[in-house]
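Q: Could you fold this chain for me?
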Amino acid sequence: MPNLDTGCQEYRELSRRGFLRSSRAMVAQVAAASVPAWLPRISLAADASSRDTLIVVFLRGGMDSLSVVVPYGDPNYYASTLRPTIAIPPPGETNGAIDLDGFFGFAPAMGPLKEVYDAQQLAVLHAVASPDTTRSHFEAYDVIEYATPLAHDTLFTGWLARHLQTSPPIGTGLLRALAVNTVLPRTMSGAPATLPIPDPATFDFPGDAATITEARAVLEQLYATTLEPMSSAAQSTVDTIDLLNSIDFDHYTPSGGAVYAGNAFAQGLKSVAAIIKAEIGLEAAVVERGGWDTHSQQGAIDGGMANNMNLLASGLRAFWLDLQNYMDRVSLVVQTEFGRRADENSSLGSDHGYATAMFAMGGNINGGQVITDWTDGELLHPDLLYNGDSLDMRVDYRDVLAEILDKRLDSQAMTTIFPNFTPTYRGVANG
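A: Sure. Below is the predicted structure, expressed as structure tokens.
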């Protein structure tokens, strides 16, 4: 997990239980080449070419949605006892929010995404959460990425992996999905033909350039006589290297005037954009960004959180501009493990809370709206806060994922992807 915050005590005290869960996830990754026996035998769709490519952006650390998407229309937001220092001012004031719909606004640092919102290709969902109310980062990762709230010790494949396991590949199926990371996230645990590749431009056969050809021939011959599934996995890896080497990442020129910043997040999105345009059959990708665990000196106006918000918004806008001719076949979601408390702490930050915000972006996303149920316009009223300190859930995050998987990715196995759950569609996607 890149860019994890070390200021949070939980990150410094990874428990034995958390370690065991991580180990189980790694075991699921090793088994990704085969479909588990428990999966139902279903009839797969004949035409996979119409499916969107799904991009999942995961913000690790717990994003403070009350700073990112400001509910300035809720009078409780500006109560003297809630956020006297860290609240984002309303639109029209110095450093004020950027109005979205007369009630919600983006933090100033999120400004680059206003263009996408106005183009009706970005939807914001607020008061989003899971029924599992844990405030532990590591338990929340299990819950959100395995998509098994209240039963996250029973299933160790990710929800995106289960989608890929129950859907036909697009094209050859050689590289169906990738994580722009050094390890597969839980979301992809058990996914077929899926690899963690931190930099697709440098994904190549290891060794000295002068001897690569000879070394490759020796290893290919060696693995050809190895037992399955090692033999096929080795050949598939070599073929994937050749596939990615067919894309000229070094000379890739973004379209639409898009300019990607030099940070890892933006460059990861740039690589994904190049792969999508190469049309090699990529079905999904995960790109992550840490730094959202803002316990102290949050700085949503001119500090660390503002920098992180601008990095996020600028990267997403560049991706959107670059893929203008492809956005009708792309759906992107942004999620985080949980939100922050409604009240600021004594360190001018915010502690672990409950509900948060989520974004959906794409050519067939019903954007230009904030989707939520902000009860009576006062969801921050003390009587409505969850546990007396946090934004309560009004949208289950699986509602959003399920609707996009159904309407944009032609999923035929919703009960397998999200077991024991019946989604409520929120009008996020066309299809």
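A (continued): The radius of gyration is 22 Å.
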